[in-house]
Structures are given as structure tokens and as C-alpha cells.
Specification:
By secondary structure, this protein is α+β, with helices and mostly antiparallel strands. It has twelve helices and eight strands. Helix 1 crosses helix 12.
């Protein structure tokens, strides 16, 4: 059995939003298994419907760049230690240079990208240019990740939110490419930034995930209404699962700019396609949130947790 440390309790609390003592109990009941502890809390009705993507603690920028023909786009994340440096002009220029190189690279992973020649000075690798920039700026930096998307039968739309806190790419297949359709894509990229869907449609949702969700929701429903007949419990599960899917599937979300406050993204997409006499499909999206999954130390909070679970 894993030791139930303050750090484990802190992590579970940040993932679920549950109280510290409830988190400690969940970890104790599940022998320190984080995933099982999350499920335990959900079954007890003490946690949200899904894990948070990660703690947003690192500074830096997520930046996007689109090719001149609009068919290829890239999003990169470059981290720094402080917000002050992240807003520094030298840092910002370096990020733009990284994005320009990433747009042209043939590398498929970050390690290969870091080892290729720096376009602006082929005597250095990307990694060496990063080191040189660190020396100039005087703070540790990291080219953390990049994703490149190409769509030959349509275009790639980008969106940067809050000065680089979030970067989005949206791959759109369309028989027509005009300003109206590009505006639609920009609106949907903004929707992705704001509401953070996980999928485009329900068809993309993993069946094993759905099976597991139903089991968790059924356990929660039985805890909530132990004497309810099975038909009622199954109805509760289907209703809650449907609500979950409406939140995590882009086309099922309420379009944030809907005039009636009810129009779904899928309906908005259909209305634009009809108006422009086009066949449009959303192929893929990528959403980077700067610092996602990274953490800075918070020793005061850890001490607070440790004091309360002794």
C-alpha cells in the first residue's frame, strides 16, 4: 500500500475539488491508487464528473501559426519560469521563431524537433538555440510540445486566447472556403478555447470509457437512492451520462454565441453549411492550455494539508 502523503492528498483534492479529509479517506480505501480514489469520490457524490486536465501553474505562451495557403497550422507551447519573462519581447519573438520552424518541420515528436537544425542559424540545433536564448534572458525555458495539422480539402483555423494562455487549431474539411465559413471556424475555435470539449462528436468517445462511466454513475445513483427500483436508477444514469456527453462533445454543446441561448454547435454548423451551399465537417481540433499538467511548489499549502491529516 502506498503511503498516504500530504502531496497525494493535495493532488487528489485539486483533481476532484473534494475536501481534504474525504480525499484522505478515499486514498486510504483504495490503497493510494489515484484513479480508483477519484472513482471512489465520484461514487460517493463528492467529486466532479471528470478529472481536471491538470494544474495550470507554469508560465509561458501557447502560440499558433498558419501557412500562407491556410491548409497547414501549428500550435506550440514554450514555457518560462515567470510571467514577467513570458511577457518579455525577446521571449515572445523566440516563441514566434519556434512556431515558424515547427510549421515547416518534418519532425513528429519534440525530441526530434529539438535536434534538427535551427533555420535562422544552421550552425545550431533548435536545442542549442534554446540554450542560447536562456543565456540571454537569464531564466530557464522549455520548448514543451507542438502539434501540426494539414487539411488539403479545406483549411486549418487557429485562435489564441488571453495573450497565449490558450492556443487552438481546428481542422475543417469543406467544399467551399470563403469568409463566412472561415468566420464560422473562428467562432468554433473560440468555443473550444472557452468550453474545452474533449471530442467533436459522440462517435469519438471510447466505448470502454462509456462503460466505466455508467458503472460509476450507477454506483453513485444507488448511494443516492438505495431503495429506488432499477428502472429509476438506469434512468438517472442515462440522464447524467447524456448531460456529460453534451458538455464534452463539441457539436452537442450549446453554441456560446447563440442568439436564443439554445442552438447547439452542430445546428450552427449545419446552418452555415446550408447558407453557403457547402459540405462542411470538423475533422480534428487541438487545444493547448499553457502549463497544463505542470505544477509549481506550494509548500505552505502542503504544510496545511500535512497538519490536518496527522
Amino acid at each position: 500500500m502506498a503511503e498516504i502523503t500530504a502531496a497525494l492528498v493535495k493532488e487528489l483534492r485539486e483533481i476532484t475539488g473534494a475536501g481534504m479529509m474525504a480525499c484522505k479517506k478515499a486514498l486510504t480505501e483504495t490503497a493510494g491508487d489515484m484513479d480508483k480514489a477519484v472513482e471512489y469520490l465520484r461514487e460517493q457524490g463528492l467529486a466532479g464528473a471528470e478529472k481536471k486536465a491538470g494544474r495550470i501553474a507554469a508560465e509561458g505562451v501557447s502560440f499558433t501559426k498558419i501557412s500562407d495557403d491556410g491548409k497547414t497550422g501549428v500550435v506550440v507551447e514554450v514555457n518560462a519560469e515567470t510571467d514577467f519573462v513570458a511577457k518579455n519581447e525577446k521571449f515572445q519573438n523566440f516563441v514566434k521563431e519556434v512556431a515558424t520552424q515547427a510549421l515547416k518541420t518534418s519532425a513528429t515528436d519534440i525530441d526530434s524537433f529539438l535536434q534538427e537544425k535551427w533555420d535562422l542559424d544552421p550552425s545550431k540545433t533548435v536545442s542549442e538555440q534554446l540554450s542560447a536564448t536562456i543565456s540571454v534572458i537569464g531564466e530557464n525555458m522549455n520548448i514543451r510540445r507542438f502539434t501540426k495539422i494539414t487539411e488539403e480539402n479545406g483549411f486549418v483555423q487557429d485562435y489564441i486566447h488571453s495573450g497565449g494562455r490558450i492556443g487552438v487549431l481546428l481542422q475543417v474539411k469543406s467544399t467551399v472556403v470563403n469568409d463566412a465559413i472561415k468566420d464560422m471556424a473562428k467562432n468554433l475555435a473560440m468555443q473550444i478555447a472557452a468550453l474545452n470539449p474533449k471530442y467533436i462528436t459522440r462517435a469519438e468517445v471510447d466505448q470502454e470509457y462509456l462503460k466505466n462511466e455508467k458503472e460509476i454513475l450507477l454506483a453513485a445513483a444507488k448511494n443516492e437512492k438505495p431503495n429506488a427500483p432499477e428502472k429509476v436508477l438506469l434512468g438517472m444514469v442515462e440522464g447524467r451520462l447524456n448531460k456529460e456527453l453534451q458538455e464534452v462533445c463539441l457539436v452537442d454543446q450549446v453554441y456560446v454565441r447563440a442568439e436564443d441561448g439554445k442552438q447547439k454547435v452542430g445546428q450552427y454548423l449545419e446552418s452555415v453549411a446550408k447558407a453557403q451551399n457547402a459540405e462542411i465537417s470538423l475533422v480534428r481540433f487541438v487545444r493547448y492550455e499553457t502549463g497544463e499538467g505542470l505544477e509549481k511548489k506550494n509548500e505552505d499549502f502542503a504544510a496545511e494539508v500535512a497538519a490536518q491529516i496527522k
